[in-house]
Write a structure and sequence with these properties.
It is a single chain. This protein has a single domain, classed as Four Helix Bundle (Hemerythrin (Met), subunit A) (Up-down Bundle), CATH 1.20.120. The protein is 69% helix and 3% strand. Helix 1 runs antiparallel to helix 2, helix 2 packs antiparallel against helix 5 and helix 4 packs antiparallel against helix 5. The radius of gyration is 17 Å and the shape is globular.
Length: 186
């Protein structure tokens, strides 16, 4: 079962890499586009590859899917994270990319989907995955190490992304009253 779950998430990440390339091509046809920090995306890709390797390794040697009364709520949270992720991809359309891109006069989407309430619904989905996927697979070391490292990487990425959006649009004004992950809280 662990292998099927991991296979699903790996296929999903590969789909996101394909979608990123497709969206980036569309954006380059319409806008002046620059990747902001090539090292940041390389670090992100390396981290995700190592995280999946850690999940696989720990689940093979130590992992144990929790009892059903725990696995069901964890599975529901992971399903909700997927709903949030795909909703975000659909809401942003071609503006959804893996890289942080500097796009002159980029339109800011703040009136549709979860963007009406929070700044970063996609990152909320990512954080939920980094907590609950290792829990579902019984990978405690990956949970702690992966989540702490992901928080560090995500903090730097959000700062980079928000600074980039603020430099090319009215991002700060539009999102000034919205929290990053949880409406009116955080």
């Amino acid at each position: 079962m662990n292998y099927l779950i991991l296979f699903f998430y790996i296929i999903q990440r590969l789909f996101e890499v394909w979608l990123n390339a497709k969206n980036e091509s569309k954006l380059k046809l319409k806008f002046k586009v620059n990747v902001v920090d090539l090292n940041e995306i390389k670090l992100l890709k390396l981290f995700h590859a190592l995280w999946f390797f850690m999940l696989l390794t720990e689940s093979v040697y130590h992992g144990k899917i929790p009892a059903l009364h725990w696995a069901i709520p964890i599975g529901i949270i992971l399903f909700l994270a997927q709903v949030i992720r795909f909703h975000t991809i659909k809401t942003l359309g071609p503006f959804w990319t893996v890289q942080v891109l500097k796009i002159e006069n980029q339109p800011i989407i703040s009136d549709r989907g979860l963007y009406r309430y929070i700044r970063h619904p996609n990152y909320l989905a990512v954080l939920l995955e980094f907590i609950f996927l290792p829990l579902l697979l019984g990978c405690c070391y990956t949970l702690v190490i992966g989540f702490v490292l992901k928080l560090i990487i995500l903090k730097k990425r959000i700062i980079l992304e928000e600074a980039t959006l603020s430099s090319t649009s009215s991002y700060q004004t539009i999102f000034k009253d919205k929290k990053r992950f949880i409406p009116k809280l955080f």
